[in-house]
Amino acid sequence: METITAQVQDCPGNYVAARPSTLRCAKCDRPLDVRDARHTPTGYVCPYYVKSRVATFYNAGLHHYLATALIAVIAGALAGFLLRLVGNIGFFAIILTVFVAPLAGSLIAEAIQRALRIMGKARGQHIWLVAAIGTALGAAAFIVPPIILLLLIGSPAALFALIPALGLVLTISTLVARLRI
Ligand SMILES: [Zn+2]
After folding, report:
1. pLDDT tens digit string along 81-111?
2. Residues 30 and 95: beta-carbon distance below 8 Å
3. What is the dihedral of CA 95, 97, 100, 103, to 10 degrees?
4. How far is the CA of 127 from the centre of ligand 1 (A)?
5. Which uninterrupted H or E stretch holds 74?
6. CA trace torsion 170, 111, 121, 50 (10° rounding)
7. Which of 20, 64, 86, 110 has an alpha carbon within 20 to 30 A of 130's alpha carbon?
8. Residue 52 CA to ligand 1 centre (angstroms)
9. What is the DSSP letter of 12?
């Protein structure tokens, strides 16, 4: 009664076991070296099968990455502006930053996810990284210059200028947590 479990597909890449083996890939039926075997719910498979699966799972193209970068830079600039505004209010700046910064990260993640959904349910392995870098660059324009300026003139206010920078770290870590699946 084992007729149905025949070879389902051919894995790309022509995997060849380095040593003789009785184990076989559940998908392409090629002899499979125990050291290369990957365990899946449907049995042991060759590394090429896993690679091809990853390639189909992550379907984002260049335009998805560009859209992500664009949204991240613009939203990052807004977040940077907001964090600096919050950082200027004095005593409650730190408390407010702790609330506002992760919220900004969630909103940016939401905006990017929505855009990718509209563009055809795109998933990308490095979307989170592009989003994080874009947000950091956009926000840095508002957050970094005051710190450098205040440090240069030796003002103790440089310490307070660091609050938005800490907020940005919170924003980006929330963003990454939301986008990294
Ligand atoms: Zn295989």
Report:
1. 999 999 888 778 999 999 999 999 999 999 9
2. no
3. -110
4. 28
5. helix 62-87
6. -10
7. 86
8. 10
9. T
Residues in the chain: 181
Output the CA 2–ligand 1 centroid distance in Å. Answer: 19
CA 59 – ligand 1 centroid, Å: 21
> What is the full DSSP assignment across 89-106?
T-TTHHHHHHHHHHHHHH
Sign of CA dihedral 174, 58, 138, 147: positive
HSE-CB of 162 using CA atoms within 13 angstroms? 6
Query: How distant, in Å, are the alpha carbons of 8, 110, 130 from that of 90?
Result: 65, 30, 33
Report how far ligand 1's centroid is from the alpha carbon of 39 (Å): 12
Give 44-95 pLDDT, tens digit per residue: 999 999 888 888 888 899 999 999 999 999 999 999 999 999 988 877 899 9
Residue 7 — very low, low, confident or very high, per pLDDT cuts 50/70/90? low
